[in-house]
Amino acid sequence: MTTYLITGATGTLGHLATQALRALEPTAHIAVLARPGADVDRLRESGAAVRRGDYDDPPSLRAACAGIERALLVSSPVLDPTVRARQHLAFLDAAAAAGVAHLTYTSALGAEHDPGHHRTEQALAQGSTSHTILRNGLYTEPFVERAWQEALTTGVVRSATQGHALRTASVRDLGLAAAHTLAAPLPGATLELNGPGWTYDDLTDAITTRLGRPVRHESVDDAELGPFGPVHALFRAGLLAQSPAELTRLIGQAPRTAGEVLAVVAG
């Protein structure tokens, strides 16, 4: 029986990966890493064994990796690339010391331009641990959730994409993808995982249909969208437009569309 460790399991991606792995490997021993003090009730209810540890506490990571055969390193939520890289490398060192046989790392599309992800990918390439790198696209859910809330409160969905398509991936599909690479490792593979394209006009039409009343799409400047503004600029420039082909092959089904994500968000 294979013994797994999933980090970041109290977050969305790690939790979904844990659920997906349990469905793929019902009898496997699945351990999850959670920071001291984090709420782990739903993880224990799922049958996962909780190991306490923190990316900033290397001894705790070494203890958490003891006896683990395959691990999922969900990238740190810390945005400072120096801190993020240090945390990731601490986990890689712990995994290597514990003799983890295979490790999957959740990187990001455009990792070569992100010092934290790039340094981690370099360390994996230079190390001895078998590994798979998943360069995940941006999650579809935050974009759809924002548009849904805007439609409910103002009747207007705003974007700065100027009609350009977005390519994003549902976090549920990315969690499933991570689980697949744990259950059936792909040593040495670097996969670029993205979902199908969509536009704000399409999303607004879908929201209008669901609400049964008119909703308008309005183009605005980046500055009016807060943290979403710079991301819209990337899509406007044609970046992050990788095909959904690798995600489709990995999960064995078509990735969720923005409309399918909307159905979940809207309930």
Automatic annotation (TrEMBL):
Pfam families from the UniProt entry: NAD_binding_10
Domain (NAD(P)-binding): residue spans on this chain: 8-117
SUPFAM superfamilies: NAD(P)-binding Rossmann-fold domains
InterPro entries: NAD(P)-bd_dom, NAD(P)-bd_dom_sf, NmrA-type_oxidoreductase
Name this protein carries in UniProt: NAD(P)H-binding protein
Species of origin: Nocardioides simplex
